[in-house]
UniProtKB/TrEMBL annotation:
Gene3D superfamilies: 1.10.357.50, Exocyst complex component Sec6, C-terminal domain. It comes from Otus sunia (Oriental scops-owl). One of its GO terms (biological process) is protein transport. It is found in: Cell projection, Growth cone; Cytoplasm, Perinuclear region; Golgi apparatus; Midbody. Belongs to the SEC6 family. Its main location: other. This is Exocyst complex component 3.
Amino acid sequence: MEETDREAVATAVQRVAGMLQRPDQLDKVEQYRRREARKKASVEARLKAAIQSQLDGVRTGLSQLHNALNDVKDIQQSLIDVNKDWRQSINTIENLKDVKDAVVQHSQLAAAVENLKNIFSVPEIVRETQDLIERGELLQAHRKLMDLECSRDNLMYEQYRMDSKNTHDMNLIHTYFGDMQKLSEELAKQLWMVVQRSLVTVRRDPTLLVSVVRIIEREEKIDRRMLDRKKQTGFIPPGRPKKWKEKMFNILERTVSTRIEGTQADTRESDKMWLVRHLEIIRKYVLDDLLVAKTLLDQCFPPQYDIFNKLLNMYHQALSTRMQELAAEDLEANEIVSLLTWVLNTYKSTEMMGNSELSPEVDVNSLNPLISQSVVDQLLSKYMSTLTSNIIGWLRKALETDKKDWIKETEPEADQDGYYQTTLPAIVFQMFEQNLQVAAQINEDLKTKVLLLCLQQMNSFLTRYKDEAQLYKEEHLKNRQYPQCYVQYMIAVINNCQTFKESIISLKRKYLKIEMEDTLSSSHTSMDATLDIIAKEGCSSLLDEVFMDLEPHLNELMTKKWLMGSNAVGTICVTVEDYFNDFARIKKPYKKTMTIEAHRRVVVEYIRAIMLKRISFKNAEERKEGAERMIKEAEQFRFLFKKLAAGSGEDTEGLCDIIEAIAEVIKLTDPSLLYLEVSTLVSKYPDIRDDHIAALLTVRGDASRDMKQTIIETLDQGPSQPNPNYVPIFKEITVPTLTVPKLLK
């Protein structure tokens, strides 16, 4: 208490100190005292009231406990009295067994009397019910059937209560009501027929469908009541529970499956498009059925049946089963594509489950896949394998067809720009386009795989194409009169190479993602290289054709006949120009290459004719005449190839300059300057060899053997500063050594 008093005094001092911090507050001391006195009186009053309330509660509790104790004692005494009376009345209860049996018998007789009318009228009610079923009045028929079943069930229940082991009486009742079971089965058949045709019935006579649903709902209630009674008594009438609701859904499920399976009207043997037709019919039927189910059927069933979602699940499951069956068949490549396109795209598109009229009840994102990913992968693998075989076969057939065109006696077709071409590139890339468009319908990944496959097979195909073009050339060389249009078709083959290049680029640009281009760069480079080889070999074979015709005229060069005024070069120019009228139908990249190559080969053959030493000029006059003729013919070549290369940007000057440079060496009149002139020639054309110089000096006819050797040895010792832009030409020219002694360095 002292500690409490001290804490109270300290608190009071602190409180007073807080009130009297300023001198002017001393005037309010009396006011503060009265306020604190009021607070103290209020606290004391509340404390007294609380204590009084607690005391009253304790007093009341003690009183109730005392009363409860008295009540427990009274109850205990009453139980003792009841127990005593029960023991005394056991014998009396046993004496009332006869009364109990009489009550049960009375109950049974009362039930029999109550159903007596129905019992005697069973045959008549059966006939009436049968008539109602036949007339389609199903609700009334079911009402009478329920009355019959109720009478039978009540009789059997009373018999069960009286003597559950008396099977004879039970069988007697069951036999008497035997026709009733047949009625139930007949009614069920009518119900299931309506259920099977529910999507048709709901449009024509929705009332009939509602009646069927009401009958099923009645039977469900009776089933539940009978099951509840079985739990209590152990008795359940024969044929219960009927489970007609469950049977209804089973029949609906079988109906849906049959409807899906029954849409296949054709087979592969009768129609190549059988699967497309089959899938389209399924799509139309399913969409129509679900729209009817949503707008009409849903209104004929109680909400708890959730009929639309159940039908949706049935259709989905039936479709899944059907798609798996189709996937397991030996499908062709186009059929695999049709199936996968339908399963992966069409099914969830706006044309079917994604139709706006089905939303929001149908959420395509919540639908499970119709076939598993493993089955999809198997189909895709099979498709790629089949497609590979097909593409190889198609390419082979296309090439064989193209080869047949090569031997025709009519010229190949020309494109809008007048360039010869065959149908091969168009056929090949049309085939590629079709397969890529089909693959794109399934997914991007398959499209990329098909593109890679097409380009891969294209690579192999181009190798075969190159081999066939080479065989075409070799066959022609055996008989140059056959095929008649060899030149024109070889031009078409060359042009096809450019078309192939452009088509490959177009195909990649259209179907390949930018990030995938690097993966195909090596393949693309390889195809370009093969195409360039085919074109180059084609151009070479055409030039071979030209130079085979030029050979007699080339053999006249640098001969006595040539020196005396042969028109060999004029004939050469006319022949080349005539061939190049056909070569004008070669596309630009290869036309330019061919013009350059023809120019180079003409110059090479001309220089080769010089190096063959067919002529050795006897005097300065002949050398001058020969040199001037060479310069004149070089100018003819220059004019010709400048004309052929018009607009191509080709430099036609350099090659003919070689002929003129050689002519200057031959034309030189002062032998003392011969070394200087030859050294100038060698500095311009560093690939010129000793045997070339020796042959050139032999053609001049005035250089001794010692002079030749001196000039060659001196040139070998001199520095060589080749022009980096010079393309070697003398290395292709071989000097015959049989008639000329070999010069030793």
